[in-house]
Amino acid sequence: MTNYQFPEGFLWGGATAANQLEGAYLEGGKGMNLADVMPGGKVRLNVISKPGFDFKIDHDKHTYPNHDGIDFYHRYAEDIALFAEMGFKTYRMSIAWSRIFPKGDELEPNEDGLAFYDRVFDECLKHKIEPVVTISHYEMPLYLITEYGGWRNREVITFFERYATTLFNRYKEKVKYWLTFNEINGATHLPIMSLGFSPATEDVRLQESFQGLHHQFVASSLAVKACHEIIPGSQIGCMLIYMPVYSYDCNPQNVLHAMKEEQVFNFICGDVHVRGEYPAFSKRFFKENGISIEMEEGDLDTLKKYPVDFISLSYYMSRTEKKELTAEEKASGNLIAGVKNPHLEASDWGWEIDPTGLRIGLNQLYDRYRVPLFIVENGLGAYDTVEEDGSINDDYRINYLREHIKAIGESIEDGVEVMGYTAWGCIDLVSMSTGEMSKRYGLIYVDKHDDGSGTLERRKKKSFYWYQNVIESNGAKLD
């Protein structure tokens, strides 16, 4: 197709996370969280995923770019005005849990933290930008990690329910779209990010991860219940990192292997959130992997009674699988390796680029669940160059976004119900995976660098003006 018809009211916008842009990590009564102890640089994932990570800051060995971010905490009005100039209909953001409950287990919230987000939401609404708020986005209070063991501990359900209910009561007149846990299905591969613990050994990773996930499933359902009761007419969704899984070839063994990988990664969390029950295939998977989930009476009833209203997702890449592969065949740049796909190009960081995979994924999700879908993360991390005249000509980013938006248009024509699209890192921020500023996603350039230098000046990239036209035309002008 060449003329895409996006529905009236389609939610165009951009997305960020509190821990990656706010900075001010000890201001306003905020407590320490996971992101505050994550080192910067390409060593990040290697350091935090190894057993024995001590969740402490070591300035002699590492830098900590999340402490400063891009200073959104003080510059939010300027940034939101730029979002409005681009034409944003919506802004997907997160709240830092430890700004509201500094330790996580307090009975009363921190007023300074609540007031900060009041100001952010007021600024959004002043510009007619609808906030979409992630309740938990890789920023669990550090105290809940070190003292409670993260989501392995069922008691954290109570703390999360108190936190979520506090948000709903405070912002019920300002926010009607909510997401519970960011990229919840990625937890089994890197539990430290969303479950708040690093397994002692690989042998216990799946057992502890699925136990933690069960606690999050219950917490999510309780949040759905509270959200609907406190904010009539609100919508609350789950958030998946979605990767269609391809078989390397038509060898039935590889096809079966790819199917199993896709079931576990893409569908267990979706089934629990939307269908309100664990899928049939999970019983065999749990048995074969020695996973035994402790549940309390009433858990399964809670999951069934309070499913999410929609699915939101991040999409960056597809994944190609082969039952037996050599080290040379691995696609090392991808978040979850798989096999190198010879038909795809890759980004500067080795992430394979596959716009068609987004169309495949949207069709898969809608065929399975028949609930609205919302792409809340999609973008290209790349090196940007500021020209002598101050311009940033990021045609590579425009091409990436254009092809993925076309895939969404094709999916809508296929019959998929899509609510909106928010480009990830609409303003440059600290990369989650590598802790770098040089891995830039933004349509707005921020003068901040990996060594901490920079003026924090904001500049509009070429993609800023391109996306402005996309939004103004409701997706009709993509060239």
TrEMBL record:
InterPro entries tied to this protein: GH, GH_1_N_CS, Glyco_hydro_1, Glyco_hydro_1_AS
Similarity comment: family membership: Belongs to the glycosyl hydrolase 1 family.
Keyword Hydrolase: yes
Swiss-Prot/TrEMBL keywords: Glycosidase, Hydrolase
Superkingdom field: Bacteria
MF terms (GO), sorted A to Z: beta-glucosidase activity
Name of the protein described by the UniProt record: 6-phospho-beta-glucosidase
A GO BP annotation: carbohydrate catabolic process
Active site: 377
UniProt KW Hydrolase keyword: yes
One Gene Ontology CC term in the entry: cytosol
